[in-house]
Amino acid sequence: MKTFIFILLLPVVSSGCLYAQEQRPGRSDIDMFSFDALNFYSPDSTRSRLDIYIEVPLNKIEFTRSREEGVGFSSKLELSIDITDRTNKTAFSKVYKEEITTEKTDMEYLSQNSKIIIKNIFLNPGDYKLKVTIYEPATKKTATAVKDVVIKDFLGAPITLSDLMIVSKLTNENGRKLITPDVTRNVSIIDTFYVFFFVYKNSEQSQINVTCNILDSKKTEVFSTSENLGINQPVDLQNQMLIPVPVDKLSYDNYMIDVTATSLQNKASISSGFSNLIVDLPVNLMKIDDLIDQLQYIATEDEMSYMRDGKTDAEKRKRFMDFWKAKDPTPKTRKNEVMMEYYKRLNYAEKHFTTVFTKGWKSDMGMVHIIFGRPDNIERHPYEMDTRPYEIWDYYDLNRQFVFIDYTGAGDYRLVTPIYERFRFQPN
Predict the structure, then answer these.
(1) Parts of the chain belonging to CATH 2.60.40.10
(2) Within the chain, how many helices (H) and strands (E) appear?
(3) Which residues in 313-398 belong to E strands, given as ranges?
(4) pLDDT at 135 (0 to 100)
(5) 1-153: what CATH class?
(6) pLDDT higher than 70, residue 147
(7) What are phi and psi of 185, to 5 degrees?
(8) Is the per-residue pLDDT at 175 higher than 90?
(9) Which pTM was predicted?
(10) Under a CB-based contact definition with an 8 Å cutoff, are residues 327 and 339 in contact?
(11) Which end of the chain has a smaller Cβ tally under 10 Å, C or N?
(12) Distance CA 382, CA 205 (A)
């Protein structure tokens, strides 16, 4: 588990460890890394600090045995950070040589671990475009991601707020707060996350009320809390906030966090998004009843009835996603391989077996493809004399053969012998 250290109450981050492993923007174009960028106050009176967190999943890079003593395997990367202002003038540009090391290289370990690289950059207040590029010399692979960032003048108003960080874990060690930021801003594999930020005051007012509200994609409030702060310093780095949010109270959706700090005379606010979703779900969560129907090749009737019996669409979606969570062979990662394979087959059936009579996933060919996968061999007989078009699908390892006939001539192939057994989808 990768741990980030906030020494005392200052946002100083250590990047040495690994943690179990994605919101675009901030996601690379070839899925090689994710990144987040957060703006904090700096003692430099003219500039603010931009913290850039770049997460590289270990299974996305190539490792070779290291020649250094005590280092098992390593991967060398070139990290480029380029920042331009609103006139497209370069405000910062630098290439960093990075080395990621690991003692293990088995696929399970690599798929469950990532490395986060942190860079601190100081900029004048203004609007910027941030571009992050990673190049891996060993494979010649390059990935780039971009994000618009706003650098604040934290001394320019009586009350100001830092950007909001999503924290997946909080512990204490020898008087220090240890936090694990969630760079991907997806909280789907944790029980409780924390909203971390600073409240800065640049006035004589001493009492400030801080409220935190979380809204779902339909703008419905799902979480709310408030706290009164007594602030005595002009800009006091002691005024950090760590607000716990239980994930089990959230359905699977995209969310917005709204934070407001209010005194008798002044107010400051900031918003930031996060998600609670299984990564790369290749379906539209809005049509939940259709999604439940499509589970007939993997779910039991009781399981499907339980999902349909949800009193609201949100409850149905949560039961639907909980079903898939229970099927996940690697629950500590954000990808669900069984779910991905199921919808890969279902989408293939929709694309190749849909006719004017039925949807592809409901057709006989679609059913066989979803349950058993692609056949080892297909014999196609579309234009033979005195016979209707037919196909023969062979599954050698299963010792099974399926024959389909197009009785209408419109591509609507039907099984000659229906499947009477209750087969269940099995991933390859």
Answers:
(1) 1-153
(2) 6, 23
(3) 377-381, 390-395
(4) 95
(5) mainly beta
(6) yes
(7) 60, 35
(8) no
(9) 0.75
(10) yes
(11) C
(12) 83
